[in-house]
Write a structure and sequence with these properties.
Helix content is 20%, strand content 33%. By secondary structure, the protein is an alpha/beta fold.
């Protein structure tokens, strides 16, 4: 499994259920990367999507511990064990954890790669992604163009890739 996230300097990812900033190139990268694949998200992340609808052209799996009825076009897992069983049906397909903070925290041990749009700015945030730069289990993979600095108006950001270190 891979995690895909946009995070600020402090690894902030959201405030009051919304992204900290919307960068069109990041949204395009997310769309192109996850389309045709499996995405795993929490209930709040699903509700934050336009119209609370599942993402098109993807298998949408919602990890939720409540008995909330989810929209058509989603599968629901009530526990990590149930999620593992569901994911077995999708072996051979790319699986992406797309948030929110609690789901990232729960699923990061199952991930071997993180695709991070790192925003060179600090925002007010109430949701955070684990700081991979301080985690000895993760290393930043440096391979050229991904490291290239990009800007959207005055916002500087980079597309980064982290990999779990071999044990």
């Amino acid at each position: 499994m891979k995690a895909i996230v946009a995070a600020d300097k402090n690894w902030g990812i959201g405030l009051k259920g919304k992204l900290l900033v919307q960068i069109p190139a990041d949204q395009k990268f997310f769309r192109e990367t996850t389309t045709g694949n499996v995405v795993v998200m929490g209930r709040k992340t699903l509700e934050s999507l336009p119209h609370g609808a599942p993402l098109k052209d993807r298998v949408n799996i919602i990890l939720t511990h409540g008995n909330t009825v989810m929209p058509e076009g989603t599968e629901t897992a009530g526990s990590l064990e149930e999620l593992s069983e569901i994911l077995k049906r999708y072996e051979g397909r790319e699986i992406y954890c797309i948030g929110g903070a609690k789901v990232y925290e729960e699923l990061l041990p199952m991930c071997d790669e993180c695709l991070v749009t790192k925003i060179d700015e600090s925002y007010e945030a109430d949701a955070f992604f684990p700081d991979l730069d301080k985690d000895p289990d993760w290393e930043l993979v440096r391979d050229g163009s991904e490291q290239e600095e990009r800007t959207y108006f005055d916002v500087v950001y980079h597309f980064l890739k982290y990999r779990r270190r071999e044990q």
